Amino acid sequence: MRYSEMFLPTGREVPSDAEVISHQLMIRAGMIRKLISGIYSYLPLGYRVIRKLEQIIREEMNKAGAQEVHLPMVQPAELWQESGRWVHYGKELLRFRDRHDHEYCLGPTHEEVITSLVRNDVKTYRQLPRNLYQIQTKFRDEVRPRFGVMRCREFGMKDAYSFDVDEESAGKSYEKMFTAYNNIFNRCGLKFRPVEADSGSIGGKYSHEFMVMAESGEDAMVFCEKCSYAANLEKAEVACPEKKIIYEYDFLPLEEVHTPDVRTIEEVSAFLKVMPQDIVKTLIFNADGQPCAVLIRGDQEVNEIKVKNYLGATELELASDEMILKATGAPRGFAGPVNIEVRVIIDYSVIDMVNFVTGANKENYHFKNVNIGRDFNIEAFADLRIVEPTDNCPRCEGNTQFVRGIEVGHVFKLGTKYSKAMKAEYLDKDGQEKIMIMGCYGIGIGRTVAAAIEQNYDENGIVWPMPLAPYHVIITPVNINEKDIMKAAENLYNSMLAEGIEVIFDDRDERAGVKFKDADLIGIPLRIIIGQKNLLQGNVELKIRKTGENKLYSLQEIVQQVKQVIAQEVNSTIAVS
Ligand code: ATP
Ligand code: MG
């Protein structure tokens, strides 16, 4: 394409609302423009990258045996009522009514629609397994849209859904998608890792997130340095410590102490001159409307997802002052497990503690020398806290490492969550009615593109990995007023087009410096500079965006040379599966 004809509005200004580099560069490189909060338009350059990614995804999905469909974005409330999510999905679900007063939502995900489709058309085991996917727009009314297309409200997603006759077969479908995802992100040239993850509101039993490594990532991951264990911080397990034998004769007498206006762990620690490790923190949560006390060592943090999963709760939040007062008889800051009427659950970190400090469920009082068994009873110890860098691997006790990343894909084993609620059944070999076993698999399209930029940029702009680059080559004549230069540039441009090379011809009447700056900013992997001096020798300069390396080639050899580099780089990222 001729640059002079392109709709490619680049800019030098860093947009004030763009916190992360990918957001800044996507705006500056003329890839996207914001319409309203969390809603973006893709301009031609940005959309080409999207299509490159979609193409890789399609190839790998098709190779894995999935078939492409296209489902509606507008979905009737009835389907969501059947699955139970109309009530549970919360405010991210954008709901509206039509002129007949029927209720609908904009699809944030498509489990309901696909399940209703499959249950109507798949009747027997002979029609299974099936894996259907689409690349389509989703709408999620995120509380805080941010980071450009990385966390927005309207975004493209590849979502796939598998239907199987039993767990074993469903496991195979999951494995296939797991492999396909590895291939996709490898082909994009990304540094990533699949990690164990929580299933969130989509539900299901088992899931992996695909994380692209990036300092700016919203997610934290834990890796084991010894074995293959890797998990999202939300999900990362803490191994149950071996319980030491505690003798009751070590228990000191329970003591109520006056602690006026002393509430937080820091305040209690300073006031009573004890270490935070000697205090047990009691947090009151509101789990589906019921208060519940969670006990944890004073220097540790509660992982709300673990608490939610342990309780099997749909909604979990810290209790309001009012609920705390009602549950404990005291205002916030004085809760404890002794003489409390609500359910108490207790983290592993408390397992070996004796003679600890807790709130006394009485304003301005704490207890000293509290002991499990003597002063209060518990149902069980559980893993309820956030892992820390000092925690060892829950599988092999190896050292762990914390890294930040961006979740670009997510694969779930759904089991029968939707198929049971929505009656997606089939007749097995013996004519018995059985429930289908499902899986679902998503990739954020825009988010993956943004993540690729987070991994591939320098101070001058984007450095596209070849497989995602909007164009592979940019031809830069340094002066368009020199006839020889322009003639050589035109010829080269035409030969490259004829060879099917994706090329931009910077035919603008701009200074060379401006052209170089734009080419760097938009991140085209290969630049061919045509200048008077080299041209006199019949040469042009090939500059590699990523390494800055440059070399002269004759006009005769340059096209083949470029073709070779492109082929090498596109192929070198294809994973062997
Ligand atoms: P997150 O925890 O980041 O909100 P999620 O767990 O809600 O993500 P899924 O429901 O698993 O996401 O959706 C599949 C994929 O869609 C994600 O892996 C991500 O790449 C993408 N995605 C999800 N929410 C957004 C969003 N608000 N903007 C852009 N992409 C998104
Ligand atoms: Mg989300």
State the gist of this model.
It is built from 15 helices and 31 strands.
Describe the structure.
- The structure is a single chain.
- The protein is an alpha+beta fold and 577 residues long.
- It folds into three domains: 9-74 and 106-237 and 401-454, Bira Bifunctional Protein, Domain 2 (BirA Bifunctional Protein, domain 2, 2-Layer Sandwich); 248-382, YbaK protein (Alpha-Beta Complex), CATH 3.90.960.10; 471-576, 3-Layer(aba) Sandwich (Rossmann fold), CATH 3.40.50.800.
- It is built from 15 helices and 31 strands.
- Strands 3, 7, 8, 9, 10, 11, 12, 21 and 24 form a nine-stranded mixed sheet that branches.
- Helix 1 packs across helix 11 (445-455), helix 2 packs antiparallel against helix 6 and helix 2 (44-63) packs across helix 11 (445-455).
- The longest helix has 21 residues, at 167-187.
- It is globular and about 95 Å long.
- The two termini are 36 Å apart.
- Bound molecules: adenosine-5'-triphosphate and magnesium ion.
Topology (SSEs and partners):
Blueprint lengths: L20 H8 L3 E5 L2 E4 L1 H20 L3 E2 L5 E3 H7 L1 H4 L6 E3 L5 E4 L4 H11 L8 E10 L14 E11 L2 H21 L4 E5 L9 E8 L5 E6 L5 E3 L22 E4 L6 H8 L7 E8 L2 E8 L6 H8 L4 E3 L2 H8 L14 E5 L8 E4 L5 E6 L10 E2 L17 E16 L1 H5 L3 E3 L5 E3 L1 E8 H11 L1 E2 L2 E2 L10 E5 L5 H16 L4 E3 L6 H11 L3 E5 L1 H5 L2 E6 L5 E5 L3 H15 L5
Parallel strand pairs: 3-7, 15-17, 17-20, 27-28, 27-29
Antiparallel strand pairs: 1-2, 4-6, 5-6, 7-8, 8-24, 9-10, 10-21, 11-12, 11-21, 13-19, 14-15, 14-16, 18-19, 21-24, 22-23, 25-26, 29-30, 30-31
Helix pairs in contact: 1-11, 2-6, 2-11
The structure holds adenosine-5'-triphosphate and magnesium ion (MG).
Adenosine-5'-triphosphate binds next to strand 8, strand 21, strand 24 and helix 11.
